[in-house]
Amino acid sequence: MTQFQELLGLLNEHEVEFIVIGGIAAAVHGSARLTSDVDIFYKRTKENAARIVNALENTKPYLRGAPEGLPFIFDGDTIWRGLNFTFVTTLGDIDIMGEVAGLGSFEEAERHSVWVDPFGVRCRCIDLEYLIIAKRAAGRPKDFETIAELESIMDMQSDSL
Q: Is 96 helix (H, G, I), strand (E, B) or coil?
């Protein structure tokens, strides 16, 4: 079971610059769908890559789906030279994305984010409109199911204005 509060808390504690996306963002905006991982869009700087490593190193991150025993060095250079990672950790699954289809740059996504407190942890979360854009760009069947729900939520919000 993913320990959402602990993972987000570690990122905050180590001053990682990130935006919550994915299932937690959908839940923040009112989705009833469950998620089993933390998805974040992180700012692509060497300093932030080092902060990610400092935040997660004690959770023993390992590439999700990789064969056991595959050599993997979790350090700032790996994060910097890579882009998107899906990890299993002792606190549960976390996906760290340096690029997210449909969202543009981190700075663009940051302009389309809101401050929220999921699980009691203050952090940025992609806004509803951009979450829908990202899910549409991802194009997976599960995303299209979520899009319909999120669009209904957006319609209800605009009707109440």
A: strand
